[in-house]
Amino acid sequence: MEVVSKNRSFGGEQAVYRHVSKVCGVDMTFAVYLPLQAKDGSVPCLWYLSGLTCTHDNAMSKAGLQAHAAEFGVAIVLPDTSPRGEGVADDEAYDLGQGAGFYVNATQAPWKPHFQMYDYVVNELRELVQANLPVSDAHGITGHSMGGHGALTIALRNPDRYKSVSAFAPIANPTQSDWGRKQLEAYLGADESSWADYDATILLKEKGWHDDILIDQGASDQFLDLLRPEALAEVITKTRQPSVFRLQEGYDHSYFFVSTFARDHVEWHAKRLYR
Amino acid sequence: MEVVSKNRSFGGEQAVYRHVSKVCGVDMTFAVYLPLQAKDGSVPCLWYLSGLTCTHDNAMSKAGLQAHAAEFGVAIVLPDTSPRGEGVADDEAYDLGQGAGFYVNATQAPWKPHFQMYDYVVNELRELVQANLPVSDAHGITGHSMGGHGALTIALRNPDRYKSVSAFAPIANPTQSDWGRKQLEAYLGADESSWADYDATILLKEKGWHDDILIDQGASDQFLDLLRPEALAEVITKTRQPSVFRLQEGYDHSYFFVSTFARDHVEWHAKRLYR
């Protein structure tokens, strides 16, 4: 891990690292916030997955997570949203290719060689972080928009690896959305049966979750039609999945929404990760 | 005032406006955060002046002020750092011209026609804000780096207009710094006697301040030589100026520093503005 930057923040340390990713076949950049408590031993680890067009930097700079991570004593890991750089496939659209990895393992050309974000987040980056930084085995995961989709699908498929899950305005049902169908076909191929592993609504219906789930969704979100929170709410209701699903009056899809409710999410995870 | 954007944030509203500035002779953009309390009547108003290269957006997105403004019931006004656009003079250097107005009234060509940021902040924008938004007569002012310089010099010259003043890593003594001498000569001319009105260290020595002052400065700030906090500290000490001057171990010049101590500053101002 090469240090890109380190800044003192709320008594702890906000760092950015670059490393060679075997899974993605390219250098990857990620950010980690360590609270002061990490100086005395390992702390639980909350993953925050970002949305379309974002890098590790957006939430690091704009979500205000550090104050809450310092207060509740958890580390925050912020991965990039895709592989990047020369030799990595891309698309002119903002919602496909670089900046839009959708946290899947691509099986189709030209994406397959580098777009392995699911394995990268679940396995490779986690092993790197645990080997090099003072984080414990207690991991939680959250994210915003495409990152909320990533957080939910990754947690639901790996209940042994994550103790807690939440999401901000997640893409809740991508197999039925223009934020999903195009990308899943490009990355996974036309056979829709392979898409189900990357749809939170389908996964929750099939697998359930071992604890409660926190979802915040802005009621004035400009992308409600694409996010399809109603599909996830229906499954939560029908399966009696313990959850707190909050439709927040007046809030849109921006970081002003995320930052407003960031403390609630960090506290939610900390309580479950310290259990 | 034309609305550029509005976003719900911490129960209140983060807005960006554009307006025709007579003083600067060009359209200007600024941001205002109004807490929920402003729905029931006027609230005190804290001005936040930004640093070199910034617009209204940087602190709006990265300083985390909204959470604290919501908690303590104050509005936050974030002006731009200079006039901008075609027909406005500029310089290739990042620290002169657009993005680097230094909160002065320029008297020299080519800057004089538009670079009137002192009058803009003290008079024109204040009148616009008070005429159009629910803010009371109780105003405080703070800022970061060049904006800390702006906050201190503007407050010290207008003690009747500002009840409270603080600064984050201010350019404290620009008449003796490479962050200052070049710009003051460009904007005000070679006669250094005209520069004293824009130097916080000189102004504090001459005028004092009617209340206490809060200054936060990162002890690991990469620009300490340019900021010259020691000059301001010396005047504070010699003149027995009531102050809280904090040298914060390990903190640099970034928004990670500003956001860490933003709550302290907003609380500080709110206590004095609600007095």
Automatic annotation (TrEMBL), chains A, B:
Catalytic activity reported: S-formylglutathione + H2O = formate + glutathione + H(+)
Keywords carried by this UniProt record: Hydrolase, Serine esterase
SUPFAM superfamilies per record: alpha/beta-Hydrolases
This protein's record includes keyword Heme: no
EC number: 3.1.2.12
Similarity field: Belongs to the esterase D family.
The protein's role, per its UniProt record: Serine hydrolase involved in the detoxification of formaldehyde.
Protein name: S-formylglutathione hydrolase
Native source species: Roseibium algae
